Amino acid sequence: MRVKVSRKAHFNAAHRLYNPAWSDKKNKEVFGLCSNPNYHGHNYELIVSVTGDIDQETGFVMDMKILKDLIKTKVENVLDHKNLNIEVVEFTKLNPTAENIAIVIWNKLRPEIEASNELEIVLYETPRNFVTYSG
Ligand code: NI
């Protein structure tokens, strides 16, 4: 039986959405307030889900303490209270949209999750806007 287990987490980060190939005018048209040259913050809500078989000895798909610690070390410690464009190497040339942040988080966690288990990232940039990436 495959079961999906999930852990919620949270981080605050600043970003600016910007395409250097475009004029400032076009960046403002497409990205609106998110293209503010002086950056702005979001309260990101993260849901990390792992789907797999239940271990017969533990009754767990995955030990949630281990998942909690992985999110702390691989995601929160890297992204929380950071300026994503400036301080997070993955975004020096990658626009830090919610889509791209979700992919970066997935890539950081995927090697840490058992290969036979699936990993899904849901990232809320605002209470109403969220993206899902599962590889
Ligand atoms: Ni924004």
What this model shows, in words?
Helix content is 30%, strand content 30%. The chain is of the alpha+beta class and 135 residues long. A five-stranded mixed sheet has the order 3-1-2-4-5. Strand 4 (118-124) and strand 5 (130-133) form a beta hairpin. The radius of gyration is 17 Å and the shape is elongated. The mean pLDDT is 97. It binds nickel (II) ion. Nickel (II) ion is lined by residues 15, 34, 40, 42.
Strand order of the largest sheet: 3-1-2-4-5
Which range does the strand content fall in? 25-35%
Q: In terms of per-residue confidence, which ranges show pLDDT below 50 for 5 or more consecutive residues?
A: none
Helix proportion: 25-40%
Number of strands: 5
Bound molecules: nickel (II) ion
Order of helical and strand elements: EHEHEHHEE
| Rg (C-alpha, Å) | 17 Å
Going by helix content, strand content and strand pairing, the class is alpha+beta
Largest beta-sheet characterization: 5 strands, mixed
Mean pLDDT: 97
Which keywords apply here?
135 residues, elongated, binds nickel (II) ion, 30% strand, single chain
Could you write a compact summary of the structure shown?
The chain is of the alpha+beta class.
Task: Give me the secondary-structure topology.
Layout: E1 2-15, H1 24-31, E2 40-53, H2 64-79, E3 82-83, H3 84-87, H4 98-109, E4 118-124, E5 130-133
Parallel strand pairs: 1-3
Antiparallel strand pairs: 1-2, 2-4, 4-5
